[in-house]
Design a protein that fits this description.
Probably interacts with PlsX. This is Glycerol-3-phosphate acyltransferase. The chain is mainly α. The chain has one domain. Helix 4 packs antiparallel against helix 5, helix 4 packs across helix 6 and helix 5 runs parallel beside helix 9. The chain is globular. It is built from ten helices and no strands.
């Protein structure tokens, strides 16, 4: 029975708002500036590279640790549930009224690193290439997510991981709807430029 506490821990890990905490260190409430999200991209935009990297690592690790603990305790489905709980609490953070608060991309990359490391390498490569070419982090996130969805069917990944990929990628796409619309309108923020 105590093993099920791992899922509560996974949810709590996902809810740690690293960008918000880093912003407090610098005297900036990231919810009130930039995109208003408590995620990695907004941290880079508002807090600079050093703190942005720390937030990236924090968000990545909470996803990875949640998936690892679930995988260790219950096998593949446990890893998936642990990872999804972390993504959910990051993206709809209980500390901020369950409102949309992040996109879950860094945490998602942490999860798939534990579950499917070969897929991760390809997806991150696509993410970096798209951001480098377009300077749109949102488009890098979307294409990286779609790459995950494709690669889980290219590689002989377990059925459970394919289910996870479909659910997680749909969540990423839904959370990026406004970004996609801004890209189409030409109003999306480009990485490395100031608003």
């Amino acid at each position: 029975m105590s093993r099920y506490l791992i899922f509560i821990l996974a949810y709590c890990l996902g809810a740690i708002p690293f960008a918000y905490l880093a912003g407090l260190f610098k005297g900036i409430d990231v919810r009130q500036h930039g995109s208003g999200n408590i995620g990695t991209t907004n941290a880079f935009r508002l807090l600079g590279v050093k703190l942005g990297i720390m937030v990236l690592l924090g968000d990545f690790m909470k996803g990875a640790l949640s998936a690892y603990l679930g995988l260790w305790a219950f096998g593949p489905w446990g890893g998936i549930i642990g990872g999804l709980l972390a993504m959910a609490s990051h993206s709809w953070n209980p500390f901020f009224g369950f409102r949309p608060s992040g996109k879950g991309v860094a945490a998602g990359f942490g999860i798939i690193t534990i579950l499917m490391w070969k897929v991760t390498l390809i997806a991150i490569s696509v993410f970096i290439l798209v951001v480098w070419l377009t300077r749109y982090v949102s488009m890098g996130s979307v294409t990286g997510a779609l790459t995950v969805l494709i690669m889980v069917f290219v590689f002989p990944e377990p059925f459970e991981y394919r289910v996870f990929a479909v659910v997680a990628v749909l969540a990423v796409l839904v959370l990026h709807r406004a970004n996609i619309q801004r890209v189409l309108n030409g109003t999306e923020h480009r990485f490395g430029t100031k608003k």
